[in-house]
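Figure 3 (text version): structure tokens given as input.
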């Protein structure tokens, strides 16, 4: 069997295991169902993954590109097996299940590859499956970890809103399905509301054992990210990078107003868009970055729109600031989405103001080019045009974030930043990345607590505590 035949077998298996990933990728035939992650449901999939891995180990690559793809795919399978058999998010993390559940509705609703009637019929299938899916979750989650439960609790209100909005939108677009959609949505929403009691119980009995440990951390560094460095080496690198960037910030702050750089951060963060202007402010910076890249001929601009929209409610607990969502690998529609988390209007004005300070006008430029052009959107859209299924679908933050960080420096060299203040905040963002190294290694291998990680972000990055808490939950 050729490598490309094995590659096809893997993705056929993967779409069966994770039909929501198939929907997001634009693969037809899976939109009306959810995956199952109970021990009994996972067992045949994991056995099949081992068979594919064995076939890959014995396969001969015809050329260097195939050998690179073969290695990447084999490592992906190793990581998947380690995740389900050792790290066990299906037994510890209700957010893992809820992200699958709600992502299945969100990506279906966004899909431009299906007619309204097709989307409505598929949505009925998923909505009607939600009560049983939640029953599987309850039966499988026997090692709850408190931080994951907290995040899941924050997702359910937004999840119920998504269910209601989806049924209304698709019911209006495909009236013949409206009655069944409404009934399925009502049943699904009730099941999700009742599920809160399980989350509250798990919150009481959950542990703080979120750390994966140094051995697992090093395994992921090697097989998921192709890094030879180990956790201690990464820790030392993070310390060195942090020291280097802080020296840059001292120099830049001295040039701007002579004050210590933390004071300058605090001062500049007072200049931010109003909540009603926040999404448009990011959209304008995205357009400016795109035009700059095109005019300077820095990279080809793909025919792939980038929509800038408020973060969906169910995603807000894990996206405190903003995030990018790429188009599906096989989708005919090439639109990517940039989500902006606008402060909840129900919060007190003082708290909204604290959140908005982390969206100051001088940091929007670096974020826009990082997430849009020539960063994530440009890179990932072009990657999805490659013939290799591996390269269309598999990626690591090492290459995706690495490219975007390179773009931040390159665009500075090309003169994109409109002021020294924008350049200053680009370095503040880089300090954040250095801190992420230290927090990730610290939380998982050095006994750092969540509270210590949040305090470090607040004290050393000068971000709002609620945003820091949401950010740390991601690590």
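Below: residues designed for each position.
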């Amino acid at each position: 069997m050729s490598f490309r035949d094995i590659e096809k077998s893997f993705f056929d298996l993967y779409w069966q295991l994770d039909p929501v990933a198939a929907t997001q990728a634009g693969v037809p035939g899976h939109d009306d169902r959810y995956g199952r992650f109970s021990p009994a449901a996972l067992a045949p999939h994991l056995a099949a993954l081992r068979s594919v891995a064995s076939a890959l180990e014995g396969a001969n690559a015809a050329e260097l590109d195939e050998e690179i793809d073969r290695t990447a795919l084999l490592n992906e399978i190793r990581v998947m097996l380690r995740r389900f058999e050792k790290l066990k998010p299906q037994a510890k993390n209700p957010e893992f299940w809820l992200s699958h559940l709600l992502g299945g509705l969100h990506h279906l609703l966004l899909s431009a590859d299906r007619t309204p009637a097709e989307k409505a019929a598929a949505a009925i299938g998923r909505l009607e499956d939600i009560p049983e899916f939640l029953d599987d979750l309850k039966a499988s989650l026997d090692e709850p970890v408190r931080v994951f439960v907290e995040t899941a609790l924050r997702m359910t209100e937004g999840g119920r809103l998504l269910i209601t909005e989806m049924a209304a939108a698709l019911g209006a677009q495909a009236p013949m399905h409206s009655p069944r959609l409404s009934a399925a949505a009502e049943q699904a929403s009730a099941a999700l509301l009742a599920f809160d009691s399980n989350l509250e119980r798990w919150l009481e009995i959950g542990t703080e054992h979120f750390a994966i440990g140094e051995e697992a951390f090093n395994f992921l560094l090697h097989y998921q990210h192709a890094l030879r460095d180990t956790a201690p080496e990464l820790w030392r690198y993070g310390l060195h990078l942090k020291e280097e960037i802080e020296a840059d910030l001292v120099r830049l702050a001295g040039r701007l107003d002579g004050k210590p750089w933390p004071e300058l951060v605090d001062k500049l963060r007072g200049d931010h868009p109003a909540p009603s202007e926040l999404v448009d402010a990011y959209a304008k910076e995205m357009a400016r970055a795109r035009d700059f890249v095109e005019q300077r001929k820095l990279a080809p601009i793909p025919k792939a729109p980038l929509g800038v929209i408020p973060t969906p409610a169910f995603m807000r607990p894990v996206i405190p600031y903003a995030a990018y969502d790429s188009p599906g690998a096989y989708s005919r529609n090439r639109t990517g989405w940039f989500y902006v988390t606008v402060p909840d209007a129900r919060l007190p004005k003082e708290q909204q103001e604290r959140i908005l300070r982390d969206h100051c006008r001088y940091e929007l430029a670096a974020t826009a080019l990082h997430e849009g052009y020539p960063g994530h959107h440009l890179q990932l859209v072009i990657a999805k045009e490659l013939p290799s299924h591996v390269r269309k679908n598999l990626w690591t933050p090492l290459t995706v974030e690495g490219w975007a960080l390179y773009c931040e420096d390159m665009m500075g060299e090309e003169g994109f930043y409109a002021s020294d203040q924008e350049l200053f905040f680009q370095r503040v963002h880089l300090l954040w990345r250095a801190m992420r190294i230290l927090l990730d290694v610290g939380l998982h291998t050095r006994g750092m607590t969540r509270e210590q990680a949040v305090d470090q972000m607040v004290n050393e990055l000068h971000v709002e505590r609620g945003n820091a808490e949401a950010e740390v939950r991601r690590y």
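The chain has two domains: 3-212, 218-474.
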